[in-house]
Write a structure and sequence with these properties.
The structure holds 2 protein chains of 2 kinds. Chain A is of the alpha/beta class. Chain A is built from 10 helices and 8 strands. Chain A has 2 domains: 164 residues, Rossmann fold; 114 residues, 3-Layer(aba) Sandwich (Rossmann fold). Chain A has a 4-stranded parallel sheet, with helices on both faces. In chain A, strands 6-5-7-8 form a 4-stranded parallel sheet, sandwiched between helices. In chain A, helix 9 links the parallel strand 7 and strand 8. Chain A is globular, with a radius of gyration of 21 Å. Chain B is mainly β. Chain B has 4 helices and 18 strands. In chain B, helix 1 crosses helix 2. Classes of the chains: A alpha/beta, B mainly beta. At the A-B interface, helix 1, helix 3, helix 4, helix 5 and helix 6 of A face helix 2, strand 8, strand 9, strand 10 and strand 11 of B.
Chain lengths: 306, 463
């Protein structure tokens, strides 16, 4: 009996540790925690499982993440199997009924948008395949607008007392976001038709948005690191006159050596683009992320090597 | 999508309505609706502009093409790289098929080749008669278990998992049942209950499947104290504490039919365990896990030692395990470079009586302990290098046991291991391992080659 009382007392002592006002949002990637902060403001406490210098495909189901998912009111992830290697383990270990797929507390961002690169058939001989299409949807700001609407509605459902506030904040975000999109599309006009070489197929949504043409990738098949043989073949294909493509793109967590090697020999500028919020010094929020991407591409296109 | 199109004219009318009081909507709903429409307009304008550009480019390409081919330029050729990408609408309706509910199925193929100085059939550690599956792999080329796994949600409250290895033992193909459990999904109060056959949650290495081990064999402490890996039938309850850091407790009630338990003592409730685990991160690059577990097992005529002349133990076996794992990966990108440090300490007390093959029975109350520490380093993608040290030690069991397999050697049993493995992807691994094993009467050089390949569904690994 006294043992039960002691246990209860311990629980009561621990309870204040977790009492925080507002909704706790666990985002798999920084773009979604940034979006949750835009739309939830002070009413949400958002954290991201990964940071911008980390490859979201390969993360360990760390103990700290299990305890974060345990407390979450909403889990928002890109989905489309991007997090297949770790999110299922977190969801099953966190013992949290609110955030299981199918519940209001789980939001898969990629299910809100038109997915590209959906394969007709999947075979692991082709590398890391995503049967539901390319998961890096955040690279088209129109997709972010769609996810923002879904997220706003979901926050309003989870916290109905403040529904009007989430609606107002969603509207305000979309107003600023649409204005920014118009500006970016104007700025990016010179980029249309640019031929790009990508390290990994992380940029198909950016290509689709800005009308870029992907010439080839540094990875021989998705998820398999660039090999010397593959790079030599690329060198032969792209030539040494700097005209084989307009730029070579990689994200901050990808090894810079292959793209720099190719830049040296082909004369095609290699450029690092932030793949999410925090990926560069300038990309501090969703707005500055796209400002930075477009500026980096424009300066690469103008020939100045970054 | 459809519902939005339905609202479109309505919203347009509202937003343009002269009766609307202010430019900025007075209600958030109207405001939001207006911005949603604008989002759609901006998006569709962009798509229309993109299509127009493509049309223009295609027209130019068609015009530039000389019509010497005879027929007038037929359809505009799509520019390379501009093919309409495959699409999937958000509301894709999938046609229901019987196979839609099939469980996720995976198969792991495992094979090995071992060479020993000594005959592995005679392998024994004096003072630590081995039970369960413990002991060296077969000499020469052989298949290790070929593991079939299936898992799926049962319904909204339960999920189930089956792991059934196919093994070849003395030329006979056997279908075994390794794990077969059902677990609750979404119980309140951060609880989870697992029932069926499963690897006990004690220690760090115990619940890891063969294909996820960092060395081709188990540490000596697992061989000596847990029969290689403790697996049993029973019930497991886990509770995740409501703390900001990771803290999990689990309790198990088990049948007690396997080493270190035996004979399903206590009417088939022969073993219990308790464990606590905690862990966290230090910066982006380091994370750790610390665990403490206890296993209490009743043994009723538990067999160990040589298969032909086994020793039988009846009594209580208590085991304490402290485990520690530290993982380092620069910026959390373990795919590029990482280091895993892992160590476990085990203490065991067994109190009861042992009977020898000749029928003689004597009292037994002995403390034994042991530990291992290992480091596995991946300096660049695909390649990993590892080193491991094992040690056991035993109290003196009394001169009654002199000249029996239960009397330990003067020096503590030790083993040193080195390994290197290469993984083309997460689904394939080739490994080379060397052990210098001085745990037996004569030191042994052991060389192993191993492959691990998996196809089909492959569940996410735990930390």
């Amino acid at each position: 009996m006294t043992r039960t009382i002691k246990a209860l007392a311990l629980l009561l002592l621990l309870a204040p540790l977790t009492a925080v006002a507002g909704l706790r949002v666990f985002a798999c990637e920084p773009e979604w925690s940034a979006l949750a902060e835009e739309i939830g403001g002070d009413r949400v406490e958002a954290s991201s499982a990964t940071h911008a210098l980390q490859d979201p495909h390969y993360v360990e189901a760390r103990p700290s993440l299990i305890s974060q998912v345990r407390k979450a009111d909403l889990v928002i992830c890109s989905g489309a199997q991007l997090e297949i290697g770790w999110l299922p383990m977190l969801l099953s270990k966190a013992n949290n009924p609110r955030i299981l797929p199918g519940k209001d507390g789980f939001l898969e961002a990629s299910s809100m948008v038109r997915r590209l690169d959906v394969p007709d058939s999947v075979d692991r001989a082709q590398g890391d395949m995503h049967p539901q299409g390319n998961p890096h949807i955040q690279m088209n700001p129109h997709n972010i607008a769609r996810v923002a609407q879904a997220l706003g509605k979901r926050l309003a459902e989870l916290d109905p007392d403040n529904a009007a506030d989430y609606q107002a904040r969603t509207a305000d975000f979309l107003r600023r976001w649409n204005t920014a999109i118009t500006r970016w599309e104007e700025q990016a006009k010179p980029l249309a038709g640019s031929r790009v070489v990508c390290h990994h197929k992380s940029w198909v949504y950016l290509e689709d948005w800005l009308g870029l043409r992907e010439v080839t990738t540094l990875e021989p098949v998705p998820g398999i690191p660039p090999t010397a043989a593959h790079l030599s073949a690329l060198l032969a294909e792209l030539g040494t006159d700097g005209k084989g493509a307009d730029m070579i793109i990689r994200s901050p967590f990808q090894n810079p050596k292959p793209s720099e090697w190719l830049q040296e020999r082909t004369g095609i500028p290699a450029v690092m683009l932030p793949l999410t919020v925090g990926g560069s010094d300038r990309a501090k929020d969703l707005f500055s992320l796209f400002d930075d991407i477009i500026e980096r591409m424009l300066s690469a296109r103008a020939g100045s090597r970054s | 999508m459809n519902t939005r199109w339905f609202y479109l004219p309505l919203a347009w009318a509202l937003s343009g309505c002269p009766l609307t009081m202010a430019q900025d909507g007075q209600t958030p709903e109207l405001d939001l609706l207006r911005e949603e429409i604008r989002s759609m307009r901006v998006e569709y304008e962009a798509r229309i502009a993109e299509l127009e550009t493509r049309l223009e480019a295609a027209e130019q390409a068609a015009a530039a093409k000389p019509s010497a081919q005879g027929a007038p330029a037929t359809a505009a050729e799509p520019m390379s790289g501009y093919e309409e990408p495959a699409m999937m609408s958000p509301q894709t309706v999938s046609v229901a098929r019987d196979s839609s509910f099939n469980p996720a199925i995976g198969v792991t193929f495992q094979g090995q080749a071992w060479a020993f100085d000594n005959d592995p059939g005679d392998y024994a550690i004096p003072g630590f008669p081995l039970g369960g599956e413990a002991g060296p792999a077969p000499e020469g080329l052989s298949l290790a278990e070929t593991e079939i796994s299936m898992s799926a949600n049962v319904d909204d409250k339960f999920t189930a998992m089956l792991t059934a290895p196919i093994v070849v033992e003395e030329g006979e193909v056997k279908f075994e049942l390794e794990e077969a459990w059902v677990e609750t999904v979404g119980l309140p109060a951060s609880l989870a209950v697992r029932m069926g056959r499963f690897y006990s949650a004690i220690g760090y290495q115990n619940s890891r499947h063969f294909h996820a081990w960092d060395f081709a064999d188990q540490p000596l402490v697992y061989q000596a104290f847990l029969g290689n890996q403790y697996l049993d039938d029973g019930l497991q309850v886990r509770w995740l504490a409501p703390t900001d850091f990771y803290l999990e407790f689990s309790a198990e009630l088990l049948r007690g039919d396997r080493y270190p338990a035996g004979g399903a003592a206590n009417s088939g409730f022969g073993a219990q365990s308790l464990s606590a685990k905690t862990g966290g991160d230090i910066g982006f690059s380091n994370s750790w896990l610390l665990g403490l577990s206890w296993l209490g097992a009743d043994a009723d005529g538990r067999a160990s030692g040589s298969e032909d002349d086994p020793l039988y133990f009846t009594g209580d076996s208590d085991l304490l395990i402290a485990d520690f794992v530290w993982k380092w990966a620069p910026n959390g990108n373990s795919r590029q470079r990482n280091l895993i440090l892992q160590a476990e300490f085990l203490w065991r007390n067994e109190n009861g009586e042992y009977s020898l093959p000749d029928g003689a029975t004597g009292p037994w109350d002995v403390d034994q302990r042991g530990w291992y520490a290992q480091a596995v380093y991946q300096p660049f993608p695909r390649w990993r290098f590892g080193a491991r040290y094992d040690q056991l030690s035993s109290d003196e069991p009394g001169s009654w046991w002199l000249d029996t397999p239960l009397y330990p050697m003067d020096s503590d049993p030790r083993r040193y291991s080195l390994m290197v493995d290469w993984s083309n992807s997460e689904f394939s691994r080739l490994r080379l391992q060397y052990n210098y094993d001085s745990a037996g009467e004569d030191a042994d050089n052991q060389f192993g080659l191993q492959y691990i390949f998996s196809i089909g569904a492959h569940g996410a690994h735990s930390f």
